[in-house]
Amino acid sequence: MRVNQEDLNIDKVKSTKVCVCYGFTADMEFAAGVSILNFVDLHGSEGFDFILYSDSRLPKLKAALGARGINVEVNVFHPPIRWLDLYSSRAVAYFSPLVLSKFEVFSHLSHYRRVIWFDYDIVIKGRLTDVISKNNFDLAFMTSGQPFENAFISPPQNVDVETLAKEGLSAGLLVVNDTFPDHQSASPCLYSTYLLHSSNLYYPEQAILDIFLNSVSYKWLELDGEIYCADPKMELPQSLILHSWGPLKFWDGRPNQKWTGYYQLWLGLGGGKYSRAKSRMNGISRKLKYLVASRIVAAFGKGKSKPW
User: What DSSP letter does each residue of the chain carry, written as one string?
Assistant: First the structure.
């Protein structure tokens, strides 16, 4: 992805809407559809543009949401990174390259004053007034409760010990305003940083965002995890978002009445069903790509890599 110099210098007329983003593989389109229905039920759709990143054009999702009057833009995501540099990363092969789509959260600030990036395995219980309307921050996110270094397989050598001991971020919810300094160059910088650490990542997007944000001076709003990322088994009355992190999901092993209600609505609109078999096959495909890529690297090395 190249950054046009004109884009860096011209202050474009920006939408008054809030940009809401998701990134997911096509087998998870039902979960993203459910989450969008949930969001719109609480907040309406008029003040928001929905921009989705996936490995498919998702015509069925667009039709299902369109039947509810919700228009979405779908970007087929191709990271500006060589295939070998993607799939020789065990973590990216496990999560899929879509995990890197979160780097694009900054790229929309040329058109929007605020961008919100959600994970798709969530239930929203109440209106997210603060993250939609507050203006006293450049970037808002939750901390992970773990040291920075835990996002890597082994501590990166070019990061100092004190930084590695800091608490890292959780990328489950990101809110960024166009006051974030030099936001035009943020996404390219994140891809470049990925290339330096691709073989040493455990939580890919969190590790790279941690490194990047450690080098930038910005105003941070810390989001409370008990409010915005509550464990469904430990939710509090004030919890606004329940997050089914880990292997148990609302659609597979961790039932939730509210999620199921929106899923039934989704199916009634013509949305696709969850397929455990399809998800497993996609996981196997990524694992095979990792095995091929890792053997190529072992035999020949990666060579020189540039993200654009």
Answer: -PPPHHHHH-----BSSEEEEEE--GGGHHHHHHHHHHHHHHH-STTEEEEEEESS--HHHHHHHHTTT--EEEEE---SS-HHHHHT-HHHHHH-GGGGGGGGGGGGGGTBSEEEEE-SSEEE-S--HHHHH--S-SEEEEEEEEEGGGGBSS--TTS-HHHHHSEEEEEEEEEEETTSTTGGGHHHHHHHHHHHHGGGBSSHHHHHHHHHHHTS---EEEPPHHHHSB-GGG--TT--EEE--SS-BTTBBS--HHHHHHHHHHHHTTPPPP-HHHHHHHHHHHHHHHHHHHHHHHHH--------
User: Cα 101–104–105 angle (5° rounding)?
Assistant: 110
User: Are 112 and 178 in contact, with CB atoms under 8 Å apart?
Assistant: yes
Closest by Cα among 111, 117, 107, 108 to 16: 111
Angle at 93 between CA 92 and CA 98, to 5 degrees: 55
User: What pLDDT digit, counting tens, does each position of 232-268 carry?
Assistant: 999 999 999 999 998 999 999 999 999 999 999 999 9
Q: What pLDDT is recorded for position 2?
A: 42
pLDDT in tens, 68-87: 999 999 999 999 999 999 99
The whole-number average pLDDT for the span 282-302 is 94
Q: Is the pLDDT of residue 308 over 80?
A: no
